[in-house]
Amino acid sequence: MQSDHYSPLGVAVLIAIFADIHANRQALSACLAQARKHGAQRIVLLGDYVGYGADPEWTVTTVMDLVDQGALAVLGNHDNAVGDTREHLNVEAQVAIEWTRGELGLSQRRFLADLPLTLEDDDRLLVHADASRPKSWNYVTNVADAARSIGATSALVTFCGHIHRPALYCMSATAKMTAFTPRADVPVQLLPGRRWLAVLGSVGQPRDGNPAASYVMLDTERREITYCRAPYDVEQAAAQIRKKGLPTRLAERLFLGK
Amino acid sequence: MVKPTLQTGSIVDGFRIGDFVHNGGMATLWSVSRPGATMPMLMKVPKIGEGEDPAAIVSFEMEQMILPRLSGVHVPKCVSVGDFAVQPYIVMERIDGPTLLARVPDIPLPYADVAEIGVKVATALDDLHRQHVIHLDVKPSNVMFRPAGEAVLLDFGLSHHDQLPDLMQAEFRLPFGTAPYMAPEQLLGVRNDPRSDLFALGVLLYFFSTGVRPFGESETLRGMRRRLWRDPPPPRRLMPDYPPWLQEIVLRCIEIEPAWRYPTAAQLAFALSHPSEVKLTARSQRLKRDPWTTVLRRRFNRDLTWTRAEPALAAKLAAAPIVAVAVDLADGPAPVNDALRVAAGRILATLPSARLACVNVLKQGRITLDTTLDAHGHNKHIDRLVALRHWAEPLKLEDHRLTVHVLEAIDPASAILEFAQANRADHILIGAPQRSLLGRLLGGVSGRVVAEAPCTVTVVRPSRLGDQDEPPSQVQASRDTRPDGPPGSS
Prior knowledge:
The complex is a heterodimer. In chain A, the strands form 2 sheets. In chain A, strands 3-2-1-11-12-9 form a 6-stranded mixed sheet. The longest helix of chain A is centred in the N-terminal third of the chain and has 13 residues, at 25-37. Chain A is an alpha/beta fold. Chain A contains 9 helices and 12 strands. Chain B is of the alpha/beta class. Chain B is built from 18 helices and 15 strands. In chain B, helix 2 runs antiparallel to helix 5 (195-210), helix 2 runs antiparallel to helix 9 and helix 5 packs across helix 8 (244-253). At the A-B interface, strand 8 and strand 9 of A face helix 1 and helix 3 of B.
């Protein structure tokens, strides 16, 4: 497995995990800087690099560089929509993707098209949405969805994004579910007796009422997950969206985090 | 019982298993040692065999999550945690001595002893609540004492952490706790109210001071649910000499409605350590239980009082701070005292559960044994108390929000700091040193309080306008007249 190269046995590995960047350059830059300051040794990307935001080219290029340096990346529905016109999106997202298609070069579009739907990384599963049918892009919004997703995998911990709101679910040995809304900066131990589903907040378009960019740090030795928030220059990100002629609501919602 | 898989002499993750110490309902305890470790240690191992309670696993997982995050003297220090994948265990500091359960054969205990136990346990609970944890199983067998006297709380298997997933909540529909001590709201599945711990402590204090359990020992859900509407007999009915202040405190702790209890453990500890300052309401005098009309109303109209969307634990504690204000009365009316009152008023106006402790230091000579009477035969201590109440009067605070304290001490700064520490004050208000000779001499007080206080300190300064040209002679004069000046003139 790819991870062996980076995580020699017994050495603590800090992994920064990002989901739903959505071409928000300012937010991704802030997250990367903060994660590196926290000591992130590896990077994992859970899809939706484009759509909504004003900097798809910079974002995809940055993601390609990170993957070259060993980061793991899976496909999101917006990334898929770049090359697959059958992908259904809401009206605003549709406008943004049509514009994005005219921004990305061949190598970038090829990179997106070649991304896998899921990746396994040690005992972890990486996927953009519900793991039971990754290509259907189903939202995981409650314990029933979470139970279905966990039940479809053999991983101890699944990481996904797609709904832009942080949540943490676990399933006990007797298949009882617990749902939890994580607090920023409070590490939670992923108890080994349970199976976990970590739903990440969004880097580029948070929808949990907090405009700060959201990502996760995972300490694989302590088995601790920490949901982090990185404040970023929302003004600039919003100004770029307006400047590129994208729907203004996509700019406005960044200020509210919804 | 499932046969313990561990044996004396075996080694687990570098810990040598010693004697078998205790067989509890959900776990067993062993003494353990490790080369180089000097602290006595215990290993707690859950019972997870066939036929054991499934709650044992979940509650052990909770304790494994919570205990390593706790610190301070009021909890056993966590040394190591073992995985469920291999051998689940928690190794923690072993506290010497018996639990509070050992005192049960001697009850009822003297009232002063009960109050002392109450202060210690409430102080420990306050420390726990400030670390985002509600214990939810406070009872004599979960309380120990360190040699220096501090209470230590044990067993966090049923606890709720405000910032971590609550596995117990999600997994079990039935309430968990210990029947005689469980708060009414716990029976309804509420696990995030710190005042549930105050209820359990109130039951403990009632039991230790009267010898009777206020809500009996019924283990059936039906029997336990009676406490949702039926109040216990007031202690004075059982013990004619029961002090009204203690009845006031105990009955307030075991109020059915959480909002009618003390808002925080710190405020409960404060009340227990200042009996003469306890506001005696109708509670303190009661000899009978509530009339049946009240009981029936509670029984069938519970939604009259049971509502609420709960704020987070930290927010609840922050909303009910103890604010200590150091008022200097020695120099007669000082502009800084008015400024202090304004500052105190602002804080109290925004936080209805906050309480104000007005503190004045009656300075003692270093060598001479000061008389308690002044030149005119007034008792200085009482005069200062009167003066403090007079200072606070314009704030128009209800009795239960205001206490006054005169500290007799050689060193004012130490006295204020010790008061704040002992009473778990959240905030100290103190006047800035005044720009006078005397002020400069006394200036060290606020400086030291700022530097050494265990909490937030606000240094209050009167508005500079108007006192720019304060003649030094005026300060001198008031200093000269101090011994004879009318007390409480500020």
